[in-house]
């Protein structure tokens, strides 16, 4: 068939249009494939997550700081017993429970150095031990101006029966304030699950310069920035006032193995949950570091 010049021209246009259509379809497919790729990898992520993100208790180090020293033993209870005795007994039970639960690297932190130097030493030791979590164990009292007097076993002792309950403190100056608050929340909720309640009295005007901001009203977590052991530690850190030993009834409860075992169970629950949440966060962080450059690559080169 003979082809005229005009026909040749329209044929060329038709070929060009067809090639453009082919190119357009290829281009659209390439873009769709590129857009589909990250979706597939996020599905792989979702299925891979549970095993990779699991808590490994044997690798997770908890430092239990036993508050005060034998020479400077902290508060004196309503029945005349030094706080250090309570701290030591509870910390030992908590350590046993954590080790039994698989947290075999848990250590008790003891020092003979009196404060304030001893407090800096405690934080430095926890940092050296590369702890994942720091928990200072204490028992509560009240300021001297709130003390009343009574006689017990022939001795004059002091008491205040008004403010039973635990209290948890974190410092906004800790290197991991968010982690400290997260663990404080878990611990408070775990103590409540064991039937214990926190004391709200740190918010009252009668506490004067010892008043604290209640940063987690559900769990009983207060802010106390200047506590050296919380301020100087480089890992999540809380201070637990496990209960009031200046309260005559609560002191007797705090002295029983039954109360210590409830607090230990709460510790195991809170530490286990915290360890799992840290493992999941580390896993997500790794995924983000890998996934971001890959996504950028798709954006830059996927449509070519
Ligand atoms: Zn104390």
What is the mean pLDDT?
Answer: 85
Strand order of the largest sheet: 2-1-3-9-6-8-7
What's the CATH class label? Alpha Beta
- What distance separates the N and C termini? 40 Å
**Helix count from the secondary structure assignment:** 7
> At CATH's second level, what is the architecture?
3-Layer(aba) Sandwich
| Major β-sheet profile | 7 strands, mixed
User: Low-confidence parts, pLDDT < 50 over ≥5 residues?
Assistant: 1-15, 20-51, 296-304
Global shape: globular
Class based on secondary structure composition and strand pairing: alpha/beta
Q: What number of domains?
A: 1
Rg result:
31 Å
Strand content: 5-15%
**Assembly level:** single chain
The kinds of small molecule bound in this structure are: zinc ion
What name goes with the CATH superfamily?
A: Zn-dependent exopeptidases
* Strand tally: 9
Tell me roughly what share of residues is in helical segments.
40-55%
CATH-defined topology: Aminopeptidase
User: Would you list the SSEs in sequence order as H and E?
Assistant: HEHEHEEEEHEEHEHH
Summary tags:
about 300 residues; alpha/beta; Aminopeptidase; 7-stranded mixed beta sheet; two-stranded antiparallel sheet; 7 helices; globular; disordered N terminus; disordered C terminus; binds zinc ion
């Amino acid at each position: 068939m003979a082809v005229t010049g005009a026909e040749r021209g329209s044929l060329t246009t038709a070929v060009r249009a067809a090639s453009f259509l082919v190119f357009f379809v290829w281009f659209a497919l390439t873009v769709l494939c590129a857009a589909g790729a990250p979706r597939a990898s996020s599905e792989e992520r979702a299925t891979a997550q549970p095993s990779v993100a699991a808590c490994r208790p044997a690798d997770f180090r908890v430092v239990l700081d036993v508050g005060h020293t034998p020479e400077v033993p902290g508060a004196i209870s309503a029945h005349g017993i030094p706080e250090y005795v309570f701290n030591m007994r509870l910390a030992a039970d908590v350590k046993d429970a954590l080790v039994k639960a698989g947290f075999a690297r848990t250590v008790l932190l003891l020092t003979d150095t009196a404060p304030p130097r001893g407090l800096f030493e405690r934080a430095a030791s926890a940092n050296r031990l590369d702890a994942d979590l720091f928990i200072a164990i204490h028992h509560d009292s009240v300021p001297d101006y709130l003390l009343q007097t009574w006689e017990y076993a022939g001795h004059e002792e002091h008491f205040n029966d008004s403010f039973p309950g635990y209290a948890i403190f974190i410092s906004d100056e800790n290197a991991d304030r968010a982690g400290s608050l997260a663990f404080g929340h878990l611990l408070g909720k775990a103590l409540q699950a064991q039937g214990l309640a926190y004391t709200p009295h740190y918010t009252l005007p009668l506490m004067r310069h010892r008043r604290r901001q209640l940063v987690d009203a559900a769990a009983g977590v207060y802010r106390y920035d200047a506590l050296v052991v919380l301020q100087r530690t480089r890992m999540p850190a809380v201070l637990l006032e496990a209960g009031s030993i200046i309260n005559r009834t609560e002191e007797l409860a705090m002295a029983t193995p039954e109360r210590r075992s409830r607090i230990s169970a709460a510790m195991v629950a809170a530490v286990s949950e915290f360890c799992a949440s840290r493992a999941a966060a580390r896993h997500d962080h790794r995924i983000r570091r890998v996934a971001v450059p890959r996504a950028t690559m798709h954006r830059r080169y996927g449509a070519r």
